[in-house]
Structures are given as C-alpha cells and as structure tokens.
Design goal:
Strand order of the largest sheet: 4-5-6-3-2-1-13
CATH topology: Purple Acid Phosphatase, chain A, domain 2
Largest sheet: 7 strands, mixed
Number of helices: 6
Order of helices and strands: EHEHEHEEEEEHHEHEEEE
Structural class: alpha/beta
CATH class: Alpha Beta
Strand content: 25-35%
Radius of gyration: 16 Å
Helix content: 10-25%
Length: 217
C-alpha cells in the first residue's frame, strides 16, 4: 500500500509520520510530499530528528519541498529505483529526483519536487540553493512526459498553485510553467501535493495532503 503525507518540517509536525508508523506494514511505502527537513537547521532538535528518521526501517520516498537541505540530499549516491533516478539515503529511504517517472505497484508517478521560498526564510538563513527545479530538471520533465505520451496515473509535487489555470501561460522553463503544462496537456488520474500545512481538496483531481496519511490503492 502507498501512503502520502507532507511537511514534517524536521520533527515540528510529527502527526503524519506517527500515524503512518502506527498503521504501516513493512511492505507499505510512505511518500513524503516535501519539507521533510533533514539537516535543515543547525539545532540539536533537528539533528536528532535527522538521525531518528534515517534509522527508520520502513520504505520511504521523499519528494523535495523548499525547506530541504538540497546539498545534503545531493551527496547521497544515485541509482535507479522503480524506473526512475533516486538518491539512496538508506537501505529503505530514497529521494525521488525531479522530472522522473516511477512505476510503483503498477501505477505511474510523475515527480517534480521543489518550490520557491518566501524572502522571510532567506532573511532568517533557513534556505538552501537548489530549492527550485533548474532548466535541466524541467527539460527532463518534459522529455519524460513525452516518452509516456503525456499519460500518467499520478502527479506528485510539493506545491500546487490553485490559481494557476486562470493565469496566462508562463515560461515553460519555470516550475509554474511546467505545472500549467501538466494541467493543460497531461492526462492523469490525480495530482497530490503538500506545502499549505492543511489538507483539502482543490477539486476532483487535485488534493493537498498534510498530516493525515492518504492511501493510494
């Protein structure tokens, strides 16, 4: 079974993780839709959370948010996993790289993590380079979508801009432009995202998740 949560923020919001761990079987997979926050702050609490999380003996995959230490995640070795490229954090935990397509339990998942932080976080020093997809990652996303004939089962991102369909088309080599393309061109069953620190349905095809695990399958 596949479960989705978002935004643990280095242990500040543990309800989703704790709920998954209470109910999960060893073969279940948890996908975190951003802002996990490993090594994000130089505090004892964040270091303890990072050590605890990386010791978990459960199958977990991370879609990046903006509150991530991207250089830290980049240091882990790369490999292929479920048809797409990942960074292997531990034997059981992977980071899903942007622009890749993964086949999990016979379902296809297109992943494009990351988004832009507000200026207040940069002023506080709680920001790392690499939070937004670069042009290479965005081009890979378009190539991946073309290769699967613009049909996927699920789209996974950190943020979904709920007003994006009302806006004029933006630069295709921007995260917003790619997300417009996904909505306007790609056939998909459902799009899941996080970021907003609350769970709600945008409409019948877009759901924002938070700390109550959402089950797929």
């Amino acid at each position: 079974m596949i479960y989705l949560i978002a935004d643990p923020h280095g242990g500040e919001s543990m309800a989703g993780l704790e709920a998954f761990l209470r109910q999960a079987e060893k073969e279940d997979l948890l996908i975190i839709l951003g802002d996990l926050g490993l090594q994000f702050e130089n505090t004892k609490e964040n270091k303890a959370f990072t050590e605890w999380f990386l010791s978990l003996d459960y199958q977990i995959a991370l879609v990046e948010g903006n509150h991530e230490n991207h250089p830290f995640l980049n240091r882990f070795p790369e490999e292929m996993w479920c048809g797409g490229r990942v960074n292997r954090l531990t034997e059981k935990i992977v980071r899903l790289q942007r622009g890749n397509l993964f086949v999990i339990e016979n379902k296809t998942f297109f992943v494009m993590g990351g988004c832009k932080s507000s200026e207040k976080w940069k002023e506080m020093g709680l920001w790392y380079p690499g939070e937004e997809p670069n042009a290479e990652e965005l081009r890979l996303g378009y190539e991946t979508l073309a290769a699967c004939h613009h049909r996927v089962d699920y789209i996974l991102t950190h943020k979904y801009d709920v007003e994006q369909l009302k806006e004029p088309a933006e630069d295709p080599l921007s995260l917003f432009g790619l997300q417009q393309y996904l909505d306007r061109t790609v056939s998909f069953i459902h799009w899941y995202s996080g970021h907003w620190h609350r769970a709600f349905s945008v409409d019948e095809k877009h759901t924002v998740v938070y700390d109550n695990p959402v089950r797929i399958g």
